[in-house]
């Protein structure tokens, strides 16, 4: 019951945050509609890259254990955005942050080892600010929320440790990058994004960085 209540609370918080953002976004769109008459405000795109995970610790209270992990993986995202003006936009993205593969050694109360794989994916909602350096080049900054879901599979389990289930929740996301406009329709961008406090039951919270390059098409 305790876990169900927590998940329900997280889901409700995510829904409220999403509704607030939709309302604010709709209001700004209405206020900016005149200034964008005739312009292409909507855009979409995709990015590929790699992820780097940090701060992973096996934290099961019934065992004394230490772990190591493969902290890099393939990552990608697709996104849809709206330009309110040339300095400010908002994006909705789906991101796959790849796999965290780990091995842990148990020292007490029994000796042994186990390993596993944690997969993380989710939706992010972020306002994006742009600082223009010239006609084509700009610096990007963003911050928002990440509604995440994890899947966890245990392998090499010689000590009979519990199979911690996946979880879902809401975390913060922030990042920065640069974009270059090839023409009025197509841009390229490079980004670093930090996804904070991704967790799996029985393990510490994990911070995941996504380094990516992508292409943007303005409708």
Secondary-structure map:
Blueprint (H helix, E strand, L loop, with lengths): L1 H31 L9 E13 L9 E7 L1 E14 L2 E21 L3 E21 L4 E19 L12 E14 L4 E13 L7 E13 L1
Antiparallel strand pairs: 1-3, 1-9, 2-4, 3-4, 4-5, 5-6, 6-7, 7-8, 8-9
Structure notes:
The chain has one helix at 2-32; strands at 42-54, 64-70, 72-85, 88-108, 112-132, 137-155, 168-181, 186-198, 206-218. It is mostly beta strands and 219 residues long. The protein has an 8-stranded antiparallel β-barrel with strand order 1-3-4-5-6-7-8-9. Strand 4 (88-108) and strand 5 form a beta hairpin. The longest helix is centred in the N-terminal third of the chain and has 31 residues, at 2-32.
What do we call the CATH topology?
Porin
Which range does the strand content fall in?
over 45%
Cα(first) to Cα(last) distance is 47 Å
**Rg measurement, Å:** 20 Å
The structural domain count equals 1
The major beta sheet can be summarized as: 8 strands, antiparallel, barrel
Compute the number of strand runs: 9
The number of helices is: 1
Low-confidence stretches: 1-10, 33-38
Sequence of strands across the biggest β-sheet: 1-3-4-5-6-7-8-9
Overall mean pLDDT? 79
Helix content: 10-25%
Question: Summarize this, please?
Answer:
It is built from one helix and nine strands, in the order H-E-E-E-E-E-E-E-E-E. By secondary structure, the chain is mainly beta.
